[in-house]
Write a structure and sequence with these properties.
By secondary structure, this protein is of the alpha+beta class. The chain contains 9 helices and 3 strands; from the N terminus they run αβββαααααααα. It has a 3-stranded antiparallel sheet with strand order 1-2-3, with helices on one face. β2 and β3 form a beta hairpin.
Length: 203
């Protein structure tokens, strides 16, 4: 009842859809309400594909920790050890460690700020950018050294980590996440990049 009330409130406040799946000790409860697409409508179902958004960061963190566990990466080493161009492209005000990227304590500017300022929301939100392009955008914003060593959320931290994973594994971040996360967990329809699948829930 609590989750159904939450769902109703979210819809009242403008969410196009709410999908909930709860699994506990072999039992499951699923709930879907709203529409798949604001323009075309269509009742949403719990099996419809959705964007996972910031959950990607936890996936990247797992891949970074696997590299650390294998001795291929030291969390307290400077980022430039693994990304030699880090300093020349981003001009950090001081040394930055891998751990600071993981914990959002680097002060690295968020690339999405200049991205969203560069055009209409729909155009910028769906513009494909390589990891290198994302960091180049971050470099257009002044890096405030005072933000280092305090929590300051920035997507650019995980862009740099993803690029680091790619370099150390010799494979794209999509391939690494498929191998490290999706396949072991049986997430057969979870993927990074490419065209959105048909029927994706879209607000």
């Amino acid at each position: 009842a609590l989750l159904e009330a939450f769902s109703a409130r979210m819809l009242e406040e403008g969410a196009p859809a709410v999908l909930i799946s709860v699994k506990d000790k072999g039992e499951s409860w699923n709930h879907a309400a709203g529409v798949r697409n604001l323009e075309s409508g269509g009742q949403v179902s719990v099996s419809d594909p959705v964007r996972i958004g910031g959950i990607t960061e936890t996936f990247i963190a797992v891949s970074v920790m696997k590299l650390a566990g294998e001795g291929k990466l030291d969390l307290d080493s400077q980022v430039s050890t693994y990304l030699p161009e880090f300093g020349s492209v981003l001009h950090p005000p001081g040394p930055v460690t891998v751990r600071q990227l993981l914990t959002h304590e680097s002060g690295l500017p968020d690339f999405s700020v200049p991205l969203l300022a560069s055009g209409h929301w729909e155009e910028t939100a769906n513009r494909p950018l390589s990891l290198e392009q994302q960091l180049a955008l971050a470099a257009t914003v002044r890096w405030d050294g005072r933000l280092a060593r305090i929590f300051d959320y920035s997507r650019s931290n995980y862009t740099a980590l993803a690029l680091m994973v790619e370099r150390l594994r010799g494979r794209s971040i999509a391939q690494v996440l498929a191998e490290d996360i999706a396949r072991p967990l049986g997430l057969r329809t979870t993927r990074l990049g490419g065209f959105p699948p048909a029927g994706m829930v879209h607000g």
